[in-house]
Every structure is written in C-alpha cells, then in structure tokens.
Specification:
With about 220 residues, this protein is of the alpha/beta class. The chain has 7 helices and 10 strands. Strands 3-2-1-4-5-8 form a 6-stranded parallel β-sheet, sandwiched between helices. It has a two-stranded antiparallel ribbon with strand order 6-7. It has a two-stranded antiparallel sheet with strand order 9-10.
C-alpha cells in the first residue's frame, strides 16, 4: 500500500495568538504542546482524509519574525522554543521580512505549500491559520488534487477592560476543503479526558468539593508531557 503523505503547515502568527489566549485568558492557563498538537493533527487528518494505512506527516512552523540569531540574540527563551520545535519533529522557517519590527504571517508558508503540491510531495495539506493572507492557498493547490484541511480558531476575551475578538477569515474558511473549529474541539477533548489529551503542556482538572454546604472549585495541576 502506498504511503499517504500529509504536509502540516503552521502559521506561527496565529499560533502565537492562540498560545497567548490559552496561557493568559482561558481557564486552562497553559501553553500549547507542539508534540501533542502534532500527534493529534496526524490522527485527525488521517480520519478526515479516510486514510487508515501508512500515513506520514511532515510538519513546518512558519515564524512571524526574522531569525533573531542573525541579530545576535541567543536568549534562553529563543533556544527553548527552538528546542521544543525540534523535539516535536517540526522544521522552523523564520520570516524573510526586512523590517525587524514587522510581525505578520510568514508568506513563505504559501510558496512552500504550493511547491510541495506541485512537485507531488504531499497528498493533502493541513493548514493551521486564521489569516486571510492564505485564502488563495486552497485554489492554488487544487490543480494538483491536493485537499486542504483548515484548523481555525474563534474566541474572545477581556483585556484591559476591552473585549478582544479573534476569528478565522471567512474566505479562507469557505475555500478550504475541510474546516475544524479548534476552540470547540479543544474544549470538548479536554473536558472529556483532561489528563490524556496532550495538546497542553499542563492540564487543569476541576474537582468540585463541598465545604460547609457551598461548592468550591479546586484546581490540581498535572504534567501532561
């Protein structure tokens, strides 16, 4: 049986915002675990594309900034981030933006995904993004019969007495072959089995206890790595 090849392309601009949401504003108060995310995506993609045999997945992370090491930055945070990406089996691609302060989706993702499709290196693409800059990707890979599974997020939270709203671009969503509302999936999976679903570095499991006739929520932390 031939191998079914999936290309997983991660928009770092989106994932950074998603990470901030879950770390600071969502009840989980935890970061996304890259290795856990990759494992879940591979299983989900195989199910969506109805592939039950030999399925391989190559993952690429597109950072919204230029490589900080080109400016002499070697902070522990940068090194730890790159180590986590490497341990998850992902390749990191820094942005080629010439403005050092520019923080936008890395458009190299688009060129690389189209190249993979045109050279028949992938049979399907999984795109993690909410950004309209990638809305032409499904049409550009369609001539090569490569479907696109889009992982998007819609959420809102309060910050500094203001409501911040984050939504998946509707055009990108409509053009994708398949769409997964990740904010719903994450909540459903963690509520059903919070200790085993490894998408977060640490899980929070709420346990109700009754004290003096009142319900108090106690939070216990488990390491999900």
């Amino acid at each position: 049986m031939e191998e079914y090849r999936i290309g997983f392309f991660i928009d770092g601009f989106t994932l950074k915002r998603v990470n901030e949401y879950y770390r600071y504003y969502h009840p989980y108060k935890s970061r996304i675990d890259f290795k856990g995310l990759k494992s879940w995506v591979r299983a989900e993609a195989a199910q969506v594309f109805r592939q039950w045999g030999n399925v391989s997945m190559e993952a690429h992370y597109y950072h919204p900034y230029k490589d900080p090491k080109t400016r002499g930055w070697h902070t522990p945070g940068i090194l730890r981030f790159e180590q986590q990406i490497a341990e998850a089996g992902m390749q990191i691609h820094y942005s080629e933006n010439y403005l050092e302060s520019q923080f936008n989706p890395n458009m190299s993702l688009m060129d690389d995904a189209v190249m993979f499709a045109s050279y028949h290196k992938v049979d399907a693409i999984v795109l993690l993004s909410t950004q309209g800059q990638y809305s032409t990707l499904p049409h550009r890979v369609a001539p090569y019969k490569v479907p696109v599974l889009l992982l998007g997020w819609n959420f809102s939270y309060k910050k500094n007495n203001m409501v911040v709203t984050w939504k998946t671009d509707p055009t990108l969503k409509d053009r994708a072959s398949y769409y997964v509302p990740m904010e719903e999936i994450v909540d459903e999976m963690t509520e059903r089995d919070p200790l085993r679903f490894g998408i977060f570095q640490k899980e929070r499991y709420l346990v109700k206890s009754y004290l003096r006739g009142k319900v108090a929520d106690k939070v216990t932390m488990w390491d999900a790595s």
